[in-house]
Amino acid sequence: MSTKSPAGQATQPFWSTRYGIATTVALDNAAARSLQAYGEWAEQETTLLSALLDEGQTVLEFGGDFAAHALWMSQVVGPHGQVHLAEPRRIRFQQACANVAINGLDNVFTHPVWLGRGKGQASLASLTPLGRAGTDEKVRIATVDSLRLDALHLLKINLSHALVDTLAGAGETIRTHRPLIYARLSGLDEAQSEVEAIKALGYRVWSHVPYLYNANNHSGSDVNIFPGVVQQNVIAAPADGHFEFAERLEL
Question: Is residue 114 part of a domain?
Answer without folding.
Answer: yes
